[in-house]
Amino acid sequence: MNKHPMTKEGAEALQAELNKLKKEDRPRITEAIAEAREHGDLKENAEYHAAREQQGLVEARIKQLESILGNAQIIDVTKLNPGGKVVFGATVTVLNVDTDEELTYKIVGNEEADIAHNKISVNSPIARALIGKQEGDEIVVEAPSGNIDYEVIEIQYI
Asked: How many Å apart are CA 112 and CA 10, to the nearest integer?
């Protein structure tokens, strides 16, 4: 199976979620199922069915996280020597040449991408265009609304 790149920060966040699911959520749900069973007839017991459904969701997420973490190739950008180029894990500030708007993105693995926190997947069009570029380079990103021109303003390895 192929390894999937992931930042150290992303792997730690997924491991923390996995630990919470196993040590807090799983026991709480097991207790809720046991308590619901004590209420009698399971066919018409909404609490029991809700707890079982929640148990299924938690177990599925546990399996998913274990699979992701098991196939993760953790890359610590602070230990790389990228030579001033944009690499996986770098935080890049770009300038939209047309609108003069500055945007900052961190290039991360698929599982940790979160546009609300400016974390973009290494497989996204803008990340693919940025990889290997240096400060001052211009890139063109093909977007559904048309091409967007950016200039690389700053690259950080944090």
From this structure: 6
DSSP string, the chain: ---EEEEHHHHHHHHHHHHHIIIIIHHHHHHHHHHHHTTS-STT-HHHHHHHHHHHHHHHHHHHHHHHHHTEEEE-GGG---TTB--TT-EEEEEETTT--EEEEEEE-GGG-BGGGTEEETTSHHHHHHTT-BTT-EEEEEETTEEEEEEEEEEE--
**What is the reported pLDDT for 62?**
96
- How is residue 99 written in tokens? 């609108």
Closest Cα partner for 150 from 83, 101, 80, 86?
A: 101
Which two three-digit tokens encode residue 51?
A: 């707890």
Q: Identify which of 79, 86, 70 has the alpha carbon closest to the alpha carbon of residue 2.
A: 70
Q: Which residues pair with 5 in a beta bridge?
A: 73
Any idea what the Cα angle at residue 28 is, between residues 24 and 31, rounded to 5°?
A: 150
pLDDT digits (tens, 9 = 90+) for 75-117: 998 888 888 999 999 999 999 999 999 999 999 999 999 999 9
pTM of the entire predicted model: 0.80
